[in-house]
Amino acid sequence: MADVEASKSLSGLLNGIAQKVYYSNSEITEELLKDELYPELSQEEFTALHEKMKALIKMKRQGSGGLGAEQAAALSRFWKSQRVRVRESLLSQSRWEPGLRGLSWRVDLHTAASRGDAAQSGPVALMELELGRAGQFILFVTGFVSKSSADSEFVCLEFDEAKVNQVLKKMSDIQQSIDRIVPRT
């Protein structure tokens, strides 16, 4: 029974450290973890255990030498359950610009009657981009509308045939530049 309690306490410690280090949860403190999980340890013993587990988590290994069997098993279980979440957290923290969350598009026909200008009739591509709210997004394209929700920015673009061809040409140029640096396999 003591092994089960020790394993639960260690799992709680690992999850608490992850909350603080990877998920920026400021409510989790070293004192809270000690009081809740290891009240029987002295402050020095707990600090040593906390620092050891924090270092192991930051090394992102499932197992490591110098650990007891229970500690190695708890660390392995932690990484099996948290690997994806930690990766996503690290990726989101490393982005400086908003990320593209979604894209939808359609082709419409604008007639001379609906636009008021016979020269503007014909097919147009309408595109809506959903961007993450990590920062301010500035778009240097004419004919866009921007709207916001709680955690996304939506940008609506309208392209005529010439603009679509320009975008496709630019994308082709980008792909060629990438291929010069990293050839496709």
UniProtKB/TrEMBL annotation:
Superkingdom assignment: Eukaryota
A Pfam family: COMMD1_N
A GO cellular component entry from the record: endosome
InterPro entries: COMM, COMMD1_N, Murr1
One Gene Ontology term from the biological process aspect of the record: negative regulation of protein localization to cell surface
Domain COMM: 99-182
Family to which this protein belongs: Belongs to the COMM domain-containing protein 1 family.
UniProt-recorded name of the protein: COMM domain-containing protein 1
Organism: Pogonophryne albipinna
